[in-house]
Amino acid sequence: MRRCLELASKGLENVSPNPMVGSVIVYENTIIGEGYHKQYGKEHAEVNAIASVKDKSLLKDSTLYVNLEPCAHFGKTPPCSNLIIENKIPKVVIGCVDTFSDVNGKGIIKMEKAGIEVNIGVLEKESQELNKRFFTFHEKRRPYIILKWAESKDGFIAPKDQTTPFWMTSYDSKKLVHQFRAEEDAILVGRVTAEKDNPSLTVREIEGENPTRVVIDKEMKLSEKLSLFNNEAKTIIFNTQKTKTINSNYYIKIEYKDLINNVLCELYKQNIQSLIIEGGAKTLQSFIDKNLWDEARIFTANKTLVEGVKSPNIEGEIIYETAINEDKLEIIKND
Question: What does the alpha-carbon distance between residue 8 and residue 4 come to, in Å, rounded to a whole number?
């Protein structure tokens, strides 16, 4: 199962909105086949694992391991549970159940009815953690939300009177942030951050796909000359004025009475499973205050500002901590 998770993680930047899945086939304690879901719309892990087995006659005496319940419905590809049954694989070991409504136990029931022995829950927590975006999206009907900011040693997120773009951390931290962006579906900032920093919110320091850019601009005050509005990536502009598409910019009119929930509802409709919030302190704190966040990634730079904009106030469980040159990165889970 650990090998399944290792294989599955290779699909991180390419399979959304599908889950990351890896599969291993074992005959007499020897791996004879393995595969993973490589790209959205392409073959699933079980298909690739079965295809990799050179001697198909061994399948009838083998065990298939997979970190997520095999699908039972026709989507962009046929059901994997059908393929397992057709190949007469007698035993299947599953990391965790797929809570997506089109599956949610149906693949397990189908295989058991066909006489297959099914074991569930091997490295279950690890399997659920790997696909935290997928599960959050389908169970909570919103994206998995990651808060990200950098702060000084004395707890400020920006200088007091910022008139030009300000970068707090080192180049290596910046490169890691671009990796974070490539791993998620979308990235959000507020109007003030877009105006003051003029960020591109793209992946430039590494190879990867640009996330969908999201900005909240209530009265559409932002200049169309800002980097956000170039054609390097799709941009969604939430506002109270209009719904319209101009090149790669999608203006969506929403109600401001319950702004954050309305934004998340619209992003759910857009099939966006994960969202990084890179806005200013006010935007970040608004998500924290509504308890609409799953994870925070906080960089602490080796700088002192003495005065400025205070960093957001957050509580949670620190699950990871590391040094990046002179910077420190903490990852906090919402518990």
Answer: 6
Compute the distance between CA of residue 89 and CA of residue 162 in angstroms, rounded to an integer.
Answer: 63
The burial class, CB within 10 Å (0-12 / 13-18 / 19+), for 165 is exposed
Task: Summarize pLDDT for 44-94 with one digit per residue, the tens.
Answer: 999 999 999 999 999 999 999 999 999 987 666 788 999 999 999 999 999
Can you give the length of the chain in residues?
Answer: 335
Distance CA(114)–CA(117), nearest Å, equals 9
H helices of the chain, in order, are: 2-8, 45-52, 80-86, 106-113, 124-130, 132-140, 171-183, 191-197, 259-269, 281-289
pLDDT digits over 149-174, tens only?
999 999 999 888 776 777 889 999 99
Spatial separation of the C-alpha atoms in residues 73 and 153, rounded to whole Å: 52
pTM: 0.93
CB atoms within 10 A of CB 161: 7
Torsion of CA 15, 200, 263, 220, to 10 degrees: -150
pLDDT of residue 160: 83
Contact 109, 241 (CB under 8 A): no
Burial (CB count within 10 angstroms: exposed 0-12, middle 13-18, buried 19+), residue 162: middle
Nearest residue to 5 via CA among 20, 26, 27: 20
Catalytic residue numbers?
Answer: 46
Residue 228, both tokens: 């956000």
Residue that has been written with the tokens 């609409």 in this structure: 292
Q: What is the pLDDT of residues 216-234, one digit of tens each?
A: 999 999 999 999 999 999 9
